[in-house]
Specification:
Blueprint (H helix, E strand, L loop, with lengths): L1 E7 L15 H17 L5 E4 L3 H13 L3 H5 L2 E2 L8 H8 L6 H13 L4 H17 L11 H21 L4 E6 L1 H12 L3 H10 L5 E7 L2 E9 L1 H4 L11
Parallel strand pairs: 1-4, 2-3, 2-4
Antiparallel strand pairs: 1-5, 5-6
Length: about 240
């Protein structure tokens, strides 16, 4: 039996020109996970990371606390664990929000009206997501919703198979909330219309644990943040 630890990246740089980079808090969240794993005896003999910068940065911050920095640098990179293209999904639904500058202007305008920018963004983004997941406009997207689901399911099965081939009993996968959502949805049989309920609940640096058995994948734990809770610092609990 193989244990798969799906780690969502630490807090990225929401609202910055380059979102794909950890904030200082995101670096801390990754380190807190590594410290918790060291204290609780969790090993990471195999490491897989998505191809995004925030995935590798989280892996490095975490594994440095385990004395395994080199393991992060030598990790298998699997783009199957990359996030969906949220910018394209939003742009196709709202062409007026087609670039970073226009999104920033929109959020500033919402704030000036007394509306929380993050709530405003989530509202319009969820409308864009509903269009994407409906299956009625697949030709508009480079990657359909079903294609994304299949990509993520294939990636987690590759990680399990590789870990077993190497004779290891566990693997740490550093990825994003979307793939964790899609994989959990597949394992638990969650209907499409409820899938993003899983996504919105995922904390940065949260850990979802799967067990790979001959009969298939089983959920062992979802969105664990004990390593953050133990700090008694509410600021470490973030969603984006």
């Amino acid at each position: 039996m193989t244990t798969i630890y799906l780690v969502r990246h630490g807090q990225a740089s929401f609202g910055a020109a380059n979102y794909d980079q950890l904030s200082p808090l995101g670096e801390r969240q990754g380190a807190l996970l590594g410290r918790w794993w060291r204290q609780t005896g969790v090993a990471a003999p195999s490491v897989v990371v998505g191809a995004m910068q925030r995935h590798l940065q989280t892996a490095r911050a975490c594994l440095a606390e385990l004395g395994q920095t080199a393991l992060a640098d030598e990790a298998l990179v699997d783009p199957g664990f990359n996030e969906y293209d949220h910018e394209a999904i939003l742009r196709i639904y709202r062409p007026d929000l087609g670039d970073h500058a226009s999104v920033r202007r929109y959020l500033i305008g919402q704030a000036e009206q007394g509306i929380d920018p993050k709530h405003a963004f989530q509202r319009v983004f969820m409308q864009a997501v509903n269009r994407w997941t409906s299956g009625q406009h697949d030709a508009d997207y480079a990657e359909s919703w079903v294609g994304f689901q299949q990509r993520c399911s294939a990636a987690v099965r590759r990680a399990a198979a590789l870990t077993q081939e190497r004779g290891h009993d566990s693997v740490a996968v550093f990825t994003s909330g979307g793939p964790i959502m899609a994989i959990t949805q597949d394992v638990m049989g969650v209907p499409d219309e409820r899938a993003f309920d899983l996504a919105w609940s995922l904390h940065n640096a949260g850990v979802t644990r799967l067990k790979a058995r001959p009969s298939g994948l089983r959920l062992g734990g979802f969105n664990d943040v004990a390593h953050l809770d133990i700090t008694r610092d509410p600021s470490t609990l973030t969603y984006r």
